[in-house]
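Retro notes, item 3 of 5
We never archived the inputs for the xanthosine-5'-monophosphate complex last cycle. Fixing that now. Sequence and ligand:
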Amino acid sequence: MEVKNEKVLILDFGGQYSQLIARRVRDLNVYCEIKSYKINPEKIISNGYKGIIFSGGPNSVYAENAPKCNSKIFDLGIPILGICYGAQLMAHLLGGKVDSSNIKEYGNTTVEFNENLSLLENVNKKSVCWMSHTDYISSVPEGFNIIGRTENCPVAYMQDSKRKLYAVQFHPEVEHTKDGNKIISNFLYNICGCRGDWKTDSFILDAIENIKKQVGNKKVLCALSGGVDSSVAAVLVHKAIGKQLTCIFVDHGLLRKDEGDSVEKIFRNQFDINLIRVNAQERFLNKLAGISEPEAKRKIIGEEFIRVFEEEAKKLDNVDILCQGTIYPDVVESGTEEADVIKSHHNVGGLPKNMAFCDIIEPLRNLFKDEVRKVGLDLGIPKDLVYRQPFPGPGLAIRIIGDITPQKLDMLREADYIFREEIQNWNFEKEPNQFFAVLTNIKSVGVMGDGRTYDYTVALRAVNTSDFMTADWARIPYDLLEKVSIRIINEVKNINRVVYDITSKPPATIEWE
Ligand code: XMP
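Structure as it came back at the time:
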């Protein structure tokens, strides 16, 4: 889907913060795209980018396979901001000198600026910035001035105003850089002349127009999971084409308590979307019977999901287009036309591309998750759903250790519901980012009244995390844990022990399987 807004280009040199740079730019209401450093300068011109940001990267500019962009980019007259490796590369390609140090400058450092230029509007002369580098610029290219330095870094900021080339050794995109956001904002608005036209409401209007154009009078099918992405995609497409859209919601019986009904209520009653709910619980449970190995469970669920969806789709007449809730990080992580594959994206429960549809629409393809959420709220999707914590595609199947039975599912659903309810009722300043119960495969001895019991152990898991790649176990209050433990033992049959998981990620993962 074409974006008409003004655009900025983020050139990716393999840095871990490329997506973070893009999110900062978008938060400042400027649309941007991440592309590989291999991009052709002609493509930069034809796309009409108003500015370019070079990301950081793990390499030294002298390394054999160091990523290097085409030097003609510097002659396009488009303002460039180089960050960390991007700054060093700019220096190196334009005739400056980059040296290697034997000490790494890492963490918070004070940078001192010696001039007040437009990149530094409202920025303190002495400001804390985040550094992470070993190589450093030791001599700047002709035409550049040194504007900022730190104790260990002689060139923390250099610029050539004539050619509109700017380079900072520190990371303005990282929260620890106190004035980082101001620096990025100054680059976008003062230097690139952006107006800031990237806003949720204009996105929705443009998306609706694009969807209408692309769909015409054809019919669209969407696999609705009740997760944030597919829900927002479905409501957006519905807004554009109404009853030409049909959603299929496959209830595989592995959802949390009342979840299937709540998805149905929102989409059928609130939005009046054509919704087919497929109650395929038995089918999935039969396939999963006796299976304990986590990856085998995932595979079975993924395949069965596709089979059920295909069967339902075949029953409908003339469906030509499939709507998918792909979002920007999926696109970037799968590799764009220029980018190397950073991480191959697999979405368990997702649909293969080669289904019998002529066309695919992905209305959220250019959005980050927080943007998807804003769009969802603007479209009137309930806050609970928009801010729903992640829930794995294979659902409770990977929260029951060992084989899955309807009884175990019922036990887990109840225990999980109690835990979530008590967390929600607790007056948390900030709730943990993800929390759930796991049914372990352990049976242990207990005593209930005067009798001996031999029943299951439930584990509670709650984590704090910003990206779900690493996570810290949440220090939730003992009193809350006690309340949950008492309720689970009293209210859920066949559970006689509750434990709390105090492992962070790494070394553990968030889920138990
Ligand atoms: P882990 O357990 O790897 O989980 O630390 C990180 C995040 O991913 C979710 N997760 C999944 N999501 N399909 C999904 O759609 C899966 O198979 C899956 N496994 C884990 C998990 O809930 C956490 O948010």
